[in-house]
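To the wet lab folks,

You asked to see what we're planning to order before we commit. Fair enough. Below is the target structure as tokens, and below that is the sequence we designed to fit it. If anything looks off to you, flag it before the synthesis order goes out.
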């Protein structure tokens, strides 16, 4: 069994903000897998289904971001899931918009939701998928930035595509394992290298348009 937790803040005020990327990934993945998010337990909205013969639980904590650990520890204890089958997906300001990373363990970085989870679990050896939302511009306060929505159609499309790709990475993790999933995440959105003779003065192609 796998438990996939998308981090975010509950309520319409926070829908589709950068900080709710984890919520949005889980919502899209639930739709893809035909899982109804209609149950409430462990301070989370969740749904249950199957993927490639494996039971999968998709969850969205309702504790608000900074207390995410309360819900995640309750989910872990209720479903008795192994740490290597707990997958947490969340936003990351240290990655450019639309880029993805998947790791099997690690620190919380600057993310308060992950800090809460690691603190209350007492360990950090569980997989996580990070979706880049970009760093705030110089004039922006960090809290205002992560609680804001994507401003342009291009940014909204890039975010939407990355959320679907994050769902692909989670499915790959469950069906093929962490190595394949990590490689898939790292390669997503990465501009291809040009043959040496085609490179210009900049030494490579500019990033592709979303």
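Sequence we intend to order:
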């Amino acid at each position: 069994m796998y438990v996939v937790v998308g981090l975010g803040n509950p309520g319409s005020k926070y829908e589709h903000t950068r900080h709710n990327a984890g919520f949005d990934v889980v919502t899209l993945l639930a739709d893809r897998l035909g899982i109804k998010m209609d149950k409430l337990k462990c301070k989370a909205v969740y749904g249950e289904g199957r993927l490639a013969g494996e039971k999968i639980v998709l969850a969205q904590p309702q504790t608000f971001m900074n207390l995410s650990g309360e819900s995640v520890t309750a989910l872990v204890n209720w479903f008795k899931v192994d740490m290597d089958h707990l997958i947490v997906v969340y936003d990351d300001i240290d990655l450019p918009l639309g880029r993805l990373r998947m790791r099997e363990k690690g620190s919380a970085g600057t993310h308060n939701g992950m800090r809460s989870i690691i603190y209350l679990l007492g360990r950090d050896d569980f997989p996580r998928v990070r979706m880049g939302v970009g760093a705030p511009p110089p004039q922006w306060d960090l809290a205002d930035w992560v609680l804001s929505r994507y401003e342009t159609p291009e940014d909204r499309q890039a975010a939407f595509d990355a959320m679907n790709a994050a769902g692909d990475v989670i499915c790959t993790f469950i069906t093929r394992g962490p190595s394949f999933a990590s490689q898939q995440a790292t390669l997503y959105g990465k501009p291809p290298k040009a043959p040496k003779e085609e490179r210009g003065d900049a030494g490579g192609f500019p990033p592709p348009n979303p």
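Structural context that might help your review: The first helix runs from residue 21 to 33. The domain at 2-198 is CATH 3.40.50.1470 (Rossmann fold).

Thanks,
Computational group
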